[in-house]
Amino acid sequence: MAETSEYLRPKTPGGRGFVVNQAQFDAGTRRGNAIMIGSSEQFIEKILDAHQTLGLDRFLGQIDWGGLPRAAVSDSIHRYAEEIAPAVRAVKGEI
Q1: Which residue among 44, 61, 67, 71 is least crowded, i.e. fewest CB within 10 A of its CB?
Q2: Tens of pLDDT, residues 27-50
Q3: What dihedral do alpha carbons 62, 6, 31, 27 form, nearest 10°?
Q4: Mean pLDDT of the region 43-65
């Protein structure tokens, strides 16, 4: 499997994307960063932080970014639907 950074880098000269090393990617998973990457728990924290800080009541995410393998995209969609969204809804009902 290719490194995570492979899916983010530009595929053509001047194309969209960016080069990111593992340390930058790992930093992006931390709470307080705007990029929605990380574990389910990290993702939940970031969505709830955005809700609390900015008053957001909608989340629109791009899951197939950079040509991820179909299995990874499918896994991400299922994880969002089965773990992340229900947890966010449960907490938002309490906020």
Answers
A1: 71
A2: 878 888 877 888 899 999 999 998
A3: -160
A4: 87
**First and final C-alpha spacing in the chain:** 40
Question: What 8-state DSSP symbol labels residue 11?
Answer: S
Structure tokens at 73: 């995209």
- pTM of the predicted structure, to 2 decimals: 0.71
Q: Which two tokens stand for residue 57?
A: 């009541």
CA 47/CA 88 separation, integer angstroms: 7
Residue 85: pLDDT band by 50, 70, 90 thresholds? Answer: very high
DSSP 8-state code for residue 82: I
9 — phi, psi (to 5°)?
-70, 150
Angle 16-26-79 from CA coordinates, rounded to 5°? 80
74, amino acid identity: S
CA distance 76 to 70: 10
Query: How many residues are present in the chain?
Result: 95
Query: Token pair for residue 66?
Result: 């950079």
